[in-house]
Amino acid sequence: MGTLDGQAGIVTGAGRGIGRGVAHALAREGMNIVLVDQDPGSAEDTRGELEALGARAVAIVGDVSDPALADEAVAQALATFDRIDALVNGAQAMRSGVSFQEHSDADFDLAISTGLWGAFRFMRSCHPALAIRGGSIVNVVSSAGTHGLPGFAGYAAAKEGIRGLTKVAANEWGPQEIRVNAISPQATSPSSEAYFDAHPERRAAKLAQRPIKRDGDAEHDIGRTVVFLVGPDSRFITGVTLMVNGGLTIMP
User: Fold this and answer.
1) Cβ atoms of residues 2 and 31 within 8 Å
2) Residues paired with 217 in a beta bridge
3) Which of 123, 140, 141 is nearest to 86 (CA)?
């Protein structure tokens, strides 16, 4: 038996990378999943993988910048599973490696609409269902925000905004036994691989800085952290950001 048997969750950005790894980890613990992704092929592939693990899964194809998508996902979760116990906000689009002065309005809007607006709308839409029996929200943020990584102005702004939402919601919703936390992960994903293939010197620099000399695994490192945060062992933890990055952000 898994620690999350019979529970249901929504995972955005679940078609690939960290979101997919998180969905796999939750499914292995018995959670049923509504997975949200903008790519139909990736969404359907992940749905099949979760069902092969023994979970029930529903795939919703859509862009999290669409104001109607959060309500659609919540309605689907309640219609299929009659409950929502967890929300993981992982979806995020961005244009990276662009200097601050070269960042266009469109670049900035892309990051904010998918990351900050997406997380806000899904949190707001999930709240009534989570308040019935309590639950957990995990928001994916980034050291690009906490450390001001050059070339990531819009992305950093979106992720730091999400950290602000995390703390406000943790304060407001704690009395309803809704815990809201953030993780700042580092793991291999298609987008990270594309970035580091284009900037190999930055991969080498990160590995040199990190005490654990490897890249994280989306399921076994990041996903298992999310399992902890939505499970009973973290029932007294809320409003925090866990740096799940092999020690990359240890301060001198």
Assistant:
1) yes
2) none
3) 123
To which H or E segment does residue 36 belong?
strand 32-37
Q: Which two tokens stand for residue 121?
A: 């709308």
Q: Per-residue pLDDT for 252 more than 70? A: no
3-state secondary structure (DSSP) of residue 235 = coil
Confirm whether 195 is a catalytic residue. no
Residue ranges of domains in the chain: 8-244
Q: For the chain, report the end-to-end CA distance as a whole number of angstroms.
A: 42
- What global pTM score does this model have? 0.94
- Residue 232, both tokens: 């009973």
Q: Tell me which of 81, 122, 155, 173 is the catalytic residue.
A: 155
Handedness of CA 55, 58, 62, 68 (dihedral sign): negative
Q: Judging by beta carbons within 10 Å of its beta carbon (0-12, 13-18, 19+), is residue 208 exposed, middle or buried?
A: exposed
Q: What digits encode the pLDDT tens for the residues 1-59?
A: 689 999 999 999 999 999 999 999 999 999 999 999 999 999 999 999 999 999 999 99
The CATH superfamily assigned to 8-244 is: NAD(P)-binding Rossmann-like Domain (3.40.50.720)
CA distance 70 to 123: 8
DSSP of 74-120: HHHHHHHHS---EEEE-------SB-GGG--HHHHHHHIIIIIHHHH
Q: List the structure tokens of 22.
A: 């998180």
Instruction: Name residues whose C-beta falls within 8 Å of residue 127's C-beta, 6 or more positions apart in sequence.
Output: 173, 178
In what helix (H) or strand (E) does residue 168 lie, and over which residues does it extend? helix 153-173
> What are the pLDDT digits (tens) for 51-86?
999 999 999 999 999 999 999 999 999 999 999 999
If DSSP codes are grouped into helix, strand and coil, which group holds residue 52?
helix
